[in-house]
Amino acid sequence: MSGEDVSPRPSSGSDGPWDIGAGRITRRSALRRAGSSVAALGGASWLLAACGSSSSSSASASSSASAKASTDPSIPLASKGNPLTLPIYSDNKPIASGKSPEKGPLVIYDWADYLSPAVVKSFEQKYGVSAQVTNFASIDEAINKIASGAVTPDVWVPESQRIAELVKAKLIQPINHSYIPNLDNAIPAAGDPWYDQGARYSTPNFINLFGAAWRNDLLHINPTSLANPWDVFWKAPSGTSIGLVNADPEDALMLGMLHLGAKNFDTLSQSDINNAAAALAELKGKWQYTAFQQIATGTEQLAYAFNGDMVQVPHYLPKGTPLSAVSFFFPANGFGYILNDLWVIPRTAKNPVLGHLFMNHFLEKQSAIDNFRDEGYQTMLKGLTIGDLEAAKVAPTHAIEMAFATPAMQANGLPAPIFNSQQLIWIEKAFAQLTAA
Q1: What stretches of 231-388 adopt beta strand conformation (E)?
Q2: Radius of gyration of the chain measured on its C-alpha atoms
Q3: The CATH number of the domain where 326 resides is what?
Q4: How much is the pTM?
Q5: Torsion (CA) 435, 286, 236, 326 in degrees, nearest 10
Q6: CA–CA dist 164, 429 (Å, integer)
Q7: Count of domains forming the chain
Q8: pLDDT tens digits, residue range 129-183?
Q9: For residue 321, is it within any domain?
Q10: Which residues of the chain have pLDDT under 50?
Q11: Neighbours of 126 (CB within 10 A)
């Protein structure tokens, strides 16, 4: 099916099995900040101590993210190479086993257009309850609303980089694994993640790979032919129109670091960040959140983009342009930048049993198929295959193949660490200067 002519269908309605509401991806539209929510939660000194870092002063981030975090700010709070086991406090324990589900309604707090309605509906039918999805535009907004009691969700999607501060502030509760047997369905790296060893507070949500997308009929490149495949952006022919994802300040900076030979992101110095920004400036790329329309129409020949964009590409291809004209690269061994989200249960949840059961429902294969079809994102399940998605006709085969993150990619990918306050200042300053140029 990769050679099929797929006509553009940029509508928001459902006109076929492959229409996932093109253009609806709005997740992470606001930049991550160290500021107001960290200040409200009392700083990060405990986090440094928990990870074995030294500190000559307590870390208390201000709204301008100007606090000191460590005597050696290149040491992150936690990373894939320095995993973190989060504490369980005597006054914030998991719910007891064997409790009956509440009557609901289940309140789900999530990014807009980031969860298949089919998954919500099947949960409602299974447990005979209603569920409502409430949205937020940024993590800081979500944290502040939960901390103030403005919203009281039963299950929520924060980011891995914020989970430690949420635990410290006791805004989320430990989970009881007896309600979530499907956690065994997750790939090991997701079921026992570096940011929450033992999955004490979280279960996996979706994964994103950051890779190279290009129109292979307009640009003849081969990342795998290079000693460092990420050099492809710098070795593209002069005049190539390049797009760069700007979902969060650090996302593109990680590409610059990979180009400069970084083997992991576990320790980041100010020079690492500034050198990455200088390298990216050489590309003179266009900053954007998504790349599917630009790559599909050929207004960009090459883009640093989310793998999930590839599920959207078929909706925007000009008539007569086959889907096979589009390629996507992420190393088979996983040596590239990844991120994933997670589910947690707020401490104020009114329906915590239902929250656990929803976490479990999300980790079923059919839920993963529904989410991939409707949202274009992939659940971190070891049993999910390209064949499963093909059989369900969630997208054209070539789009599935480009967007699919194999277990090896998921397990071996390089996530950004949990940054300390000083690193966040460096990242935001470098990114602001880079995008203002």
Answers
A1: 242-245, 286-288, 302-306, 326-329, 337-343, 345-346, 378-379
A2: 21
A3: 3.40.190.10
A4: 0.84
A5: 140
A6: 24
A7: 1
A8: 999 999 999 999 999 999 999 999 999 999 898 999 999 999 999 999 999 999 9
A9: yes
A10: 1-73
A11: 12
